[in-house]
């Protein structure tokens, strides 16, 4: 269970705080009273949740924490190191990444540099710290060598990746594990101050994702424009979960790392319950029940490869961390579509996010 007292006044560094997941996580931590340093690229051109939320202005609430923005690139070790030294973090949540599969085909070298070298730059920047620091390095459910199995992948299953994005994240997992083995400990070349874990989340959806080539943003843009939703892989299955689900897992993992150190310094899956492992077609049709419209099958056999089946086993997070998903598939889709419809009708994105956050952190369903 999350402990509000742990986060109030806690010095936290978030990389990627201008992204979709990073914006939600920043908002959540501000509401808990954390003292935040954000390090990220400027938001993508076009609409962005971080801009919609105006997080730097939302900190005027006396009960909230404070956020210091730092625009930078994790591929720039010198700049990143300066930010780490300024922040002197007690907790680090690393979300900065090139997160899009199809973009990774267009920019494979940039994807590898950001996702692998950027992660190592962060660990190198953290090594000189002289106080305990819990570090959660976020990767993805796509780090596993995908055999198109019907059953879910566990943390000890073989890593791999067909596309540059998946392979770069699997490589990041190997690099992080090597760094932890090599440089965390009591040897002359090691540090006792860092407790490092990786977090592998399922496919997240929720209000405020405006990225290219993702099914929910594509669907919401199409519905808002009165157009049919383009669907590239209607039969592909994914472990769909609301964005708040894995974020809650990251925060809980950070708490455990801070309290138990090395006992939790390993990889953890954060995915939905089995019933939420649905096809893209099922996701789209569930969304259309809340925002009427149509969809069209644009399957293209010549398109770049994307995994057909994917599912995670989450037993480890449940048994070791006490974490479990709270919202079933139907609630996840309903709240996601409701967010976009409300904002389309003129509602405040910040208020919509706060309502979802309040609903999620309230009593269990």
What is the averaged pLDDT score?
Answer: 92
Into how many domains do the coordinates divide? 1
The main β sheet shows up as: 7 strands, parallel
Q: Strand order across the biggest sheet?
A: 3-2-1-4-5-6-10
Runs with pLDDT <50, length 5+? none
Structural class: alpha/beta
Distance between the termini: 16 Å
CATH architecture: 3-Layer(aba) Sandwich
Task: Please state roughly what percent of the residues sit in beta strands, choosing from under 5%, 5-15%, 15-25%, 25-35%, 35-45% or over 45%.
Answer: 15-25%
CATH homologous superfamily assignment: NAD(P)-binding Rossmann-like Domain
Query: What count of helical segments does DSSP give?
Result: 14
Number of strands: 12
Secondary structure layout plus pairing:
Blueprint: H1 4-7, E1 11-15, H2 20-31, E2 35-40, H3 49-53, H4 55-58, E3 66-71, H5 77-87, E4 91-94, H6 101-106, H7 108-126, E5 133-138, H8 164-183, E6 194-201, E7 203-205, H9 215-224, E8 229-231, E9 237-242, H10 244-260, E10 267-270, E11 277-279, H11 280-288, E12 295-297, H12 315-321, H13 329-344, H14 349-361
Parallel strand pairs: 1-2, 1-4, 2-3, 4-5, 5-6, 6-10, 7-9, 8-12
Antiparallel strand pairs: 9-11
Helix pairs in contact: 5-7, 7-8, 13-14
Summarize the model shown.
By secondary structure, the chain is of the alpha/beta class. It has helices at 4-7, 20-31, 49-53, 55-58, 77-87, 101-106, 108-126, 164-183, 215-224, 244-260, 280-288, 315-321, 329-344, 349-361, and strands spanning 11-15, 35-40, 66-71, 91-94, 133-138, 194-201, 203-205, 229-231, 237-242, 267-270, 277-279, 295-297. The protein has a seven-stranded parallel sheet with strand order 3-2-1-4-5-6-10, sandwiched between helices. It has a three-stranded mixed sheet with strand order 7-9-11. A two-stranded parallel sheet has the order 8-12.
């Amino acid at each position: 269970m999350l402990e509000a007292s742990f986060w109030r006044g806690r010095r936290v560094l978030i990389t990627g705080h201008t992204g979709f997941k990073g914006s939600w996580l920043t908002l959540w931590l501000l509401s808990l009273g954390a003292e935040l340093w954000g390090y990220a690229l400027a938001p993508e051109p076009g609409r962005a949740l971080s801009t919609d939320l105006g997080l730097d202005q939302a900190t005027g609430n006396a009960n909230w924490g404070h956020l210091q923005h730092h625009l930078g690139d994790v591929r720039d070790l010198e700049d990143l190191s300066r930010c780490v030294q300024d922040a002197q973090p007690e907790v680090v949540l690393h979300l900065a990444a090139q997160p899009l599969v199809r973009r990774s085909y267009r920019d494979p070298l940039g994807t590898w540099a950001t996702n692998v070298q950027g992660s190592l730059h962060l660990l190198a920047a953290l090594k000189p710290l002289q106080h305990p620091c819990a570090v959660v390095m976020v990767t993805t459910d796509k780090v596993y060598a995908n055999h198109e199995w019907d059953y879910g992948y566990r943390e000890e299953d073989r890593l791999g990746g067909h596309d540059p994005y998946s392979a770069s994240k699997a490589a990041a997992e190997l690099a992080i594990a090597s760094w932890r083995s090599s440089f965390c400990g009591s040897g002359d070349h090691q540090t006792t101050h860092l407790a490092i874990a990786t977090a592998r989340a399922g496919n997240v959806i929720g209000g405020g994702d405006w990225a290219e080539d993702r099914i929910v943003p594509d669907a919401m843009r199409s519905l808002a424009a009165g157009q049919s939703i383009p669907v590239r892989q209607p039969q592909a299955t994914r472990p769909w979960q609301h964005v708040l689900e894995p974020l809650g897992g990251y925060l809980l993992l950070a708490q455990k790392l801070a309290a138990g150190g090395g006992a939790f310094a390993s990889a953890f899956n954060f995915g939905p319950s089995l019933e939420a492992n649905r096809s893209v077609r099922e996701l789209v049709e569930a969304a259309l029940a809340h925002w009427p419209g149509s969809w069209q099958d644009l399957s293209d056999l010549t398109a770049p490869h994307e995994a057909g089946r994917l599912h995670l086993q989450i037993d480890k997070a449940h048994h070791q961390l006490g974490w479990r998903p709270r919202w079933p598939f139907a609630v996840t889709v309903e709240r996601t579509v409701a967010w976009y419809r409300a904002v389309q009708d003129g509602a405040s994105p910040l208020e919509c996010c706060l309502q979802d956050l309040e609903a999620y952190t309230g009593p269990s369903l």
